[in-house]
Amino acid sequence: MKILILGAGQVGSSLAMHLSSEDNDITVVDLDGRLLAILQERLDIRTVKGRGSHPEILHKAGCDDADMLIAVTNSDETNMVACQIAYTIFHTPTKIARVRSNQYLTYPQLFSPEALPVDVLISPEQLVTDYIKRLIEYPGALQVLDFAGGQVQLVAVRAFQGGPLLGHELQEIRDHMPDVDTRVAAIYRKGNPIIPNAETIIEENDEVFFIVDRRNTRKVMSELRRVDKPFKRIMIAGGGNIGQRLARTLEGHLHVKLIDNNKAHARLLSEELEKSIVLLGDASDEELLIEENIETTDVFIALTNDDEANIMSALLAKRLGARKVMALINRAAYVDLVESGDIDIAISPQEATIGSLLTHVRRGDVVKVHSLRKGAAEAIEAIAHGDKNTSQVVGRTIEEISLPPGTTIGAIVRSGEVIITHHNTMIEPDDHVILFLVDKRHIMDVEKLFQVNITFI
């Protein structure tokens, strides 16, 4: 597939890295020649220096015969205009734009062939807000990812002392919960993946990924760790797009405090938010945190545009007694460093955004992609088509399917019913199949499994 990526920032660079390793023809456009030079040294891609919204630059980049344009520059306006030009002049089949400003997103009618022809609209702020909301909904989870419209969830938890299953084999889950079916898709032990089987024993500090019907998520979590009390008091540092969205999302049922250091913006936030308490100040001000009872706060979430400020304020909040702390981290190099210390969860907007973008790049009928473990692993939802003669999965049981190494089929959704898979589960046409890939390098093999032979009509 020939793909043009506009923007060589964090998201554009990460996306180029993902896609260039998957037999795609990638060209990256950016105004910053230094960023392009770094990318070209590391990856087998083309680069073009210039503004992505200029027709001559798009022509030079090969937009004439591109299959897809992905506009992820730092400018909403550049991204939108680039899609318009790609549609009008170059007739590019698929156009994806990252748009951050609520001033545009509030009017979805803007993004249509009759107005701005953007086929797929990506809002990182909304993706991150939804991600944090799920973490708050399930205390104790490291990640909560939705599939099949939220019917199925992939949940990551750390096994702690006190969990009923700790020190026991996975097959004992059925003894503990005879009425609940689940599938452990992967275990990470000291950072290394383990492909689980029935005899695998859960050890303390294992990071366990399991797939489950969302109605049973909390029951399965309780098998792996002591059940955490529901969160009630939330403190947010940073009133930007994500902080404001999150406060508005949570304030209806939780006690929310939001800290912002800009006087005019804090006043605006206090007018726009209905129940949240807006505080003017610095989130790394120890006196302010103590005065606002940080020791009784269930979750402190640092969401400013400054990674270092987020890390420092989250560490301070943890030291002062916050039950759980999360920090928004843009630099990938910081994520491991942060999560190995006192910060409970590092939130990567790039990972959330890239997963959403990959959904539209994958071959075959892939409807959902989540990028995991800094892009090393993936969880995907693919739809099975064809019959036993034209498909490599339809009409076959799980044990009959030649899955790539480290790949697990954890669940299928059939006509609205969630089915947790076992070795004898049969795949039928139109099943939504949820897979976990420990090694993303095998994604092309998975794509081929779900492609229908040309004889299928």
Describe the structure.
The chain has 457 residues and is an alpha/beta fold. The protein has 3 domains: 2-122, NAD(P)-binding Rossmann-like Domain (Rossmann fold); 233-347, 3-Layer(aba) Sandwich (Rossmann fold); 357-449, Alpha-Beta Plaits (2-Layer Sandwich). 30% of the residues lie in helices and 26% in strands. It has helices at residues 10-20, 33-42, 55-61, 76-88, 102-105, 124-137, 173-176, 217-224, 241-250, 263-272, 286-291, 307-319, 332-339, 349-358, 443-449, and strands spanning 2-6, 25-30, 46-49, 68-71, 94-98, 120-122, 141-147, 152-158, 182-189, 192-194, 207-213, 233-237, 255-260, 277-280, 299-302, 324-328, 345-347, 366-372, 377-383, 407-414, 417-420, 432-437. A 6-stranded parallel sheet has the order 3-2-1-4-5-6, with helices on both faces. Strands 14-13-12-15-16-17 form a 6-stranded parallel sheet, with helices on both faces. The chain has a 5-stranded antiparallel sheet with strand order 7-8-11-9-10. α1 packs across α14 (349-358) and α6 packs parallel to α9. The longest helix has 14 residues, at 124-137.
Note the topology.
Elements: E1 2-6, H1 10-20, E2 25-30, H2 33-42, E3 46-49, H3 55-61, E4 68-71, H4 76-88, E5 94-98, H5 102-105, E6 120-122, H6 124-137, E7 141-147, E8 152-158, H7 173-176, E9 182-189, E10 192-194, E11 207-213, H8 217-224, E12 233-237, H9 241-250, E13 255-260, H10 263-272, E14 277-280, H11 286-291, E15 299-302, H12 307-319, E16 324-328, H13 332-339, E17 345-347, H14 349-358, E18 366-372, E19 377-383, E20 407-414, E21 417-420, E22 432-437, H15 443-449
Parallel strand pairs: 1-2, 1-4, 2-3, 4-5, 5-6, 12-13, 12-15, 13-14, 15-16, 16-17
Antiparallel strand pairs: 7-8, 8-11, 9-10, 9-11, 18-19, 19-22, 20-21, 20-22
Helix pairs in contact: 1-14, 6-9, 6-14
